[in-house]
Amino acid sequence: MGGWALPSAAVAFWAGLLLWQARPPFVAGFPAWVWLALGIAGLIGAAIAAPGRRGPDPLHRIGLGSEERPAVAAVASGAPDPRRGPLAALLLMCVGLTLIGAGWGGVADLRREGALLARLAPARVEVVGTLKEDPSLGTYGWHAVFDAGRVSWSGGQAAVRESVWVGGDGDPPAAVRGDQLQIEGTLERPDDAEFAEALRRKGMAVALRADEVVQLGGSPNPLISATQVFRAFVGRSIQRIFPPREAGLLLGLVMGDDSQLDPATSRDFQATGLGHLLVVSGENVAMILAPVMALAVALGLARLGRFLLGLGTVVFFVVLTGAEPSVLRAGVMATLALIGIVLAKPRSTAVVLAGAVLVLLVLDPWLVWSIGFQLSVVATAGMVALATPLAGRFGRFLPKPVALAAGTTIAAQLGVTPLLLFHFHEVPGVTIAANLAAFPAVSPALLLGIAASVLGLAFQPLGMFVGLLARLPMRYLELVANVLAKAPVFHITTHGGIEVLVLGGALFVATALALRHGWRPRRPVVIAAAAVFPLFVWSTALTAGPPGGLTVRFFDVGQGDSALITTPAGATILVDGGPDEEQVATELAALGVKRLDVVVASHSHADHIVGLPNVLARIPVGVVLQPGCPDTGALQADLDAAIADEGLRVLNPRAGDAFVVADVRIDVLSPDRCWVNTESDANNDALVLRVTYGGDVVLLATEPEEPAQELLLQTGADLHADVLKVPHHGAATSVPEFFQAVDADVAVVSVGENDYGHPVPATLDAIAQTGAGIWRTDQHGTITVTFDANGPVVTAPR
Hints:
Elements: H1 5-22, H2 25-28, H3 32-49, H4 58-61, H5 70-76, H6 86-113, H7 116-120, E1 124-131, E2 136-138, E3 141-153, E4 156-168, E5 180-188, H8 193-200, E6 207-217, H9 222-241, H10 244-255, H11 263-271, H12 282-298, H13 303-320, H14 325-342, H15 349-363, H16 371-394, H17 400-423, E7 426-428, H18 431-458, H19 460-485, E8 491-493, H20 498-517, H21 523-537, E9 551-554, E10 563-566, E11 572-575, H22 583-590, E12 596-600, H23 606-609, H24 612-618, E13 621-625, H25 634-646, E14 649-651, E15 658-661, E16 664-670, H26 681-684, E17 688-693, E18 696-701, H27 706-714, E19 723-725, H28 736-742, E20 746-749, H29 761-768, E21 773-776, H30 777-780, E22 783-788, E23 791-795
Parallel strand pairs: 4-6, 11-12, 12-13, 13-14, 18-19, 19-20, 20-21
Antiparallel strand pairs: 1-3, 1-5, 2-3, 3-4, 5-6, 7-8, 9-10, 9-22, 10-11, 15-16, 16-17, 17-18, 22-23
Helix pairs in contact: 1-6, 1-15, 3-6, 9-10, 9-13, 9-18, 11-19, 11-24, 12-13, 12-14, 13-14, 14-15, 14-16, 15-16, 16-17, 16-20, 17-18, 17-20, 18-19, 24-25
């Protein structure tokens, strides 16, 4: 079976874990132990089928063989048993490990569901344990993952070893990962199916809603305690030596602490495919380990000494960075490689990678769902398969170091692209260029940054001097990300789906075969693949370019709003950005939008503006319109910071203002002022826009409630339109007279799953009485309205 055995075993075990989670009927119908037993039987069959040797050959049996003579030894060594074959053994091994993987996944599920905390829910408990990650502040409070060690409830107490998601209201506790906490709260099995599934994929069954958190101290583990001290001292040194933006970048690179990352920097790096540089990753292990091992060689340490120093460095770094999945993978790989060196039996990178994957999945089957782990593994696999052949080809016309860097970067990107398209639905076309440009600066930025922060602990002026040197590669990385974020380069986009993984994986395998073994697919196959591939990765952009008439796309963004207006003269206007940070930016990339003349932030609610900062970071914008009313909320502050970072012009229009963009006119109907003392001042402050193209009219009534609508009716504003964006997701905050005044042919309700009852039947009835056709994004998906000579035409995927 040779070098294929361990990589095949890792893939088979991974597939088995996924098979159990998919739960097809033929798997779910049997308990986990059945699949474990069948898998062991498969491995026994593989051992029996493995190539072997028959007994002594006839020369030996009659005493004529002598192993001292090479010619006779060659004959006497026996012959392979024709009844056994490597292919049959490999297939049996793969089947056996797939079944064992399914059984192991079943065992993990049984442990999760049978855990004590899961059985206690919904009891009120007191839990003592260790923070597994730093608490994060979200939209509705703080949250973290907590390793429980002891639990007490009204009926008793017990020692446990379980992880639980913990969250609470207000600010997060002043604690860091590794700290011992005592938490009082209520165990809950999530009602929300998506949240429950997210917990399940982390190996957790319940959440702990914390009412009281008491910090008991640091970690009792000496190693973890040492890393806590190191993090505290080095973190403070970094913040003293570097400006805030560079300090946040270095804290992420060195210690996996993304709490200080500058949002604008983060958006630029993500937009160029450099997001992996913002937080500690597997490649950081190599960057840290390489100089340490060089030092060990310079000191003349023996093989065992080098091994112990290297192993200690790897373990310390993994614990220091919070054992992120990608760092775990790299750490285990480094450990296996060091063991091979100390035993004088080095193994290929492919074998070491496969061994690391197997070890980690056995220890933690839930890693199979970790996107960070998946990307780390396939990036490394891409480099193993393609870096050398690509570098060899580039070496024909590039210097060797540049060729190696290019080959490594492109190989890793080819490996991760199918997964990125599957999970995140886009890959910036500028990614490879950005990574190649950033490559020379990453190691200097990291190593000089670490040196500056450590030296600053002993002698701050020396640390400041080295810090000045470290800023050069850091500023260069920021410049690369900032400049290329808005590069007018296409994005590869998809709507996800398993077919993306299958097609992308097939293309990767074909590329690897072609480069490594000289295999060439037949010309018809290449032509067919080239013709079909864009349909999967850029399908919506097939209709990119100016439309034949006024076109409005109401994006399906869930419970939120976002609409894109395009015209024959090329005007592009985006109204709101939805509640997801990435979705609208991805939708625009899929449509091939390279510039936005106007971006409208109708008001400061999350379901309208959360997605706008990423849009502003990726696409050049002419002007931003927003109400400009007093708002102390964090969301508006984030948007204002994003606008300032991009240096954009901002206008705060009022009723009566008008704008002409190419061939379209925008009339502002509301607000006439900033509202006070209403049920929702922010909603009544929302911009209401009447968009006119020739005789075609669209009214974007974003979120005004009764007071603002009644004022519009009283002032006699021209509300008539062919298409109406229904206010406030169809809530019970509109007056019927408003819909009668608009008298639209088409009414679009931008709405998603929600707890508010939107849209309410009374509002839908009031719209229906005007004769308008009602379209809903939750039922129809993204709704596209185009105008022709006969008026608005609606198309939708559902």
